[in-house]
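Troubleshooting log. The previous structure file for this entry was overwritten by mistake, so regenerating from the original sequence record. Sequence copied from the archived sheet and checked twice against the printout by T.R.
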Amino acid sequence: MATTPGALEGIKVLDLSRVLAGPWASQMLGDLGADVVKVERPGEGDDTRRWGPPWVKQADGRPSDQAAYFQCANRNKRSITVDMATAEGQALLRELAQKADVVLENFKVGGLQAYGLDANALRALNPRLIYCSITGFGQTGPYSARAGYDFLIQGMGGLMSLTGRPEGEDGAGPQKVGVALVDVMTGLYASIAILAALNHRHATGEGQTIDLALLDVQVATLANQAASYLTTGVAPRRMGNAHPTIVPYQDFPTADGDMILAIGNDGQFARFCAAAGHGQWAADERFATNPARVANRSVLIPLLRQATVMKTTAEWIALLEGVSVPCGPINRLDQVFADPQVQARGLRVEAPHPRLGNVPLVANPIRLSGTPVGYRQAPPLLGEHTQEVLADWLAQAAR
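Regenerated output below.
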């Protein structure tokens, strides 16, 4: 629970977004102390409210009607229901936007213009407003009118061409990442952009619009793989768990499972070889340097795999941690949340829910010494705060 004011206390966010990218951004702002008002359709709400099972358990252990998916991106928000298809609803949202510092939405390009809720309309009413639009392909370009979804963008943006088993292996082929990573990254970029715009407004008094596209974010976060392509003109290929430019940096079998070796320099490799009883590998000119290991990975990796199966995962971790060689297990989520480091960092938290008692959540990883993240409330019930918000923001009773 929050015990001190958050860094963004006093900032009002009118959140018209739904599903994941937009809600992830507004949850970040809420975690940092902003007053986030989530606007939802009467009787239906955010689509993810119905994306179950699984459902959050009630105090007696029975499943509720609250989807676990919705819980991941909607804490620290107040929910109101407004029918924006009606003139009354549109007028109410315009009134709220005049009180807001930030409006966040992820409708299709032009989707809010018919309601008078687009950036131009709302910023004409409130020039200090920061209006952030999240779309699949952005406000411009030949694809701007298309709907965009994380899975689609992972394919179009190149991530799936880099993820999966190499060609020629059993099960080869493109593979999506196991979480909606493009949505999450777009939400993080959106929160960064909003904070930058707030700082600019602090200096100038002027708001601005923010145009964020899932495709742009996916391409931007190809990172070293994009740099490699732009440098060489050669498209990187799928390599499974191997790294294109560092060896050994992948999974290896052990006597009772698998482990990850993440050897990033020649000194670590030499220490691994000594610990594994094969000091001669570090002296071999084929393996002595990382460029040599990359060039000769097809020779080195089978040798390493023959060695790693001789000890259990726990034995390897104990041995290699003792000589400062990065390694670790490949955990299931039950093992993740049982890990002593994860527990020590408090990455599982609980927040009070009006119907379910305390609900489990994953903590925000940001650690601020003076204005720490707070968990003021669990993800809200549909329309739970309609009267409260209208009285608070507009100083009037609910309509």
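The chain has 17 helices and 13 strands. Archived copy saved in two places this time.
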